[in-house]
């Protein structure tokens, strides 16, 4: 067969393949795994950078009017995923006093037959959930739903048989809504209730084949420890947790990385088969370091930035932010708030870290997307430890290096295309980019970030092919 015939045959086969390809169930609003298995895309093939917020108690704590305020704020700040519990407790009760299940049995959802959830007076628990999910959809926000929080399973409040019935109910109720993602688990080790978690995952997959599913694990653990090879699991999630290096209690865990959340991502990135991974719960802004002692220092915006850039540059497909007050929708009328929140949720919406998260998302979407890989060989010489560690990522025509402390560091040039590159400093606090010069794309070059070295003087060096 001559070359012309081969080319013709290749074109015909390609056209037939495209013609036979199944159209995504929700069209352009579908969320899919990218062809290289590293990222998420929408149904039309565009990159989807997951910028999540933990609004765990949204369904139970906020009125419809308050929910609209919250979701609109997150939309304006660039968030496109809200992680929320369906059932925080068994039973859960919403702000209107309506219970979720009958007789503390998750297999018996307390559904009010004949209700229209769009009716402003229909405050049935499940109608309220439906209303908020649809409200989010109108704002372009996906809802990552935790069916039942892990504590309930660990305390034997949910059996395998109950889980199957409940997961079937959830899947059938929400499988036709385009903005659903399933977060099995909920701050729990997969080994605590393994049969129940697999039952929920398998049942969701069997009854809802078109939505993504993952597992939200316990702090300082990764879902891949238990479910990487599970057929129902589409992508991996880690919870890097809320403790300082010196507070770490996970020495006996398989993965023992302290605050270095990039190491969890790096570990997942090496697994086969290839699956996307993300830090779904790093330290929350405004929460005490170590969680339970409210006299401890609080995690700040600089910390949530560090976790974000570290994990994304290490290969994560997105990042989930959280704030102590917002995740529990804290109000001054709450009798027993957790972890000593200081601001009400309505005020905490505008915390510095929440405002700054969109700069990370915008930066990653500003260059070619699907060819991006982590590449620590960009860092020349000896890299620093802990807060001094520089993380690097690149595509074919760009490279980015993140320093949390703003110390000088050296770059091995020649890792991207082009004889010359232009260099810029990107400020994670403001989203502003400052051009600093053009350089020959070979050898080793030292760069000096603006300002004096200090925790929180973080910068991204951007190198672009000329």
UniProtKB/TrEMBL annotation:
What InterPro entries does the annotation carry? Apiosidase-like_cat_dom, Collagen-bd_put, GH
Protein's UniProt name: DUF4038 domain-containing protein
User: Which Pfam families does its entry note?
Assistant: Apiosidase, Collagen_bind_2
Q: Which stretches make up the Apiosidase-like catalytic domain?
A: 34-370
What region holds the Putative collagen-binding domain? 373-464
């Amino acid at each position: 067969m001559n070359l012309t015939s081969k080319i013709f045959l290749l074109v015909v086969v390609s056209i037939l393949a495209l013609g036979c390809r199944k159209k995504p169930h929700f069209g352009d609003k579908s969320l899919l795994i990218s062809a290289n298995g590293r990222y998420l895309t929408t149904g039309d093939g565009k990159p989807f950078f997951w910028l999540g917020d933990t609004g765990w108690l949204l369904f139970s704590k906020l009125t419809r009017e308050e929910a609209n305020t919250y979701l609109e704020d997150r939309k304006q700040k660039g968030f496109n995923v809200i992680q929320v519990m369906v059932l925080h407790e068994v039973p859960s009760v919403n702000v209107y006093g309506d219970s979720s299940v009958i007789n503390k049995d998750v297999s018996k959802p307390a559904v009010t037959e004949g209700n229209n959830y769009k009716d402003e007076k229909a405050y049935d628990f499940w109608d309220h959930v439906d209303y908020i999910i649809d409200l989010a959809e109108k704002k372009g926000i996906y809802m990552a739903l935790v069916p039942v929080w892990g504590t309930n399973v660990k305390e034997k409040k949910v059996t395998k048989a109950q889980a199957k019935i409940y997961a079937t109910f959830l899947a059938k109720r929400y499988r036709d809504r385009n903005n659903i993602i399933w977060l099995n688990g909920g701050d729990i080790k997969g080994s605590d209730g393994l049969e129940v978690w697999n039952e929920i995952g398998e049942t969701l997959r069997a009854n809802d084949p078109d939505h993504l599913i993952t597992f939200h694990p316990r702090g300082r653990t990764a879902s891949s420890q238990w479910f990487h090879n599970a057929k129902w699991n589409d992508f991996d999630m880690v919870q890097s947790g809320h403790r300082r290096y010196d507070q770490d209690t996970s020495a006996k865990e398989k993965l023992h990385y302290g605050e270095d959340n990039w190491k969890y991502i790096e570990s997942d990135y090496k697994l086969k088969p290839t699956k996307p991974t993300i830090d779904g719960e790093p330290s929350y802004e405004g929460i005490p370091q170590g969680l339970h002692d409210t006299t401890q220092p609080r995690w700040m915006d600089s910390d949530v930035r560090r976790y974000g850039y570290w994990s994304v540059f290490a290969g994560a497909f997105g990042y989930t932010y959280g704030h102590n007050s917002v995740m529990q929708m804290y109000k001054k009328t709450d009798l027993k708030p957790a972890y000593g929140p200081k601001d009400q949720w309505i005020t905490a919406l505008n915390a510095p870290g929440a405002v700054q998260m969109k700069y990370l998302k915008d930066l990653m979407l500003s260059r070619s997307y699907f060819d991006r890989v982590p590449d620590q060989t960009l860092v020349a010489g000896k890299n620093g430890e802990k807060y001094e560690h520089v993380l690097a990522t690149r595509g074919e025509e760009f490279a980015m290096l993140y320093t949390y402390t703003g110390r000088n560091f050296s770059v091995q040039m020649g890792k991207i295309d082009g004889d010359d590159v232009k260099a810029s400093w990107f400020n994670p606090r403001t989203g502003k980019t400052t051009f600093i010069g053009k350089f020959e794309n070979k050898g080793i070059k030292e760069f000096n970030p603006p300002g004096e070295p200090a925790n929180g003087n973080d910068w991204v060096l951007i190198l672009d092919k000329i």
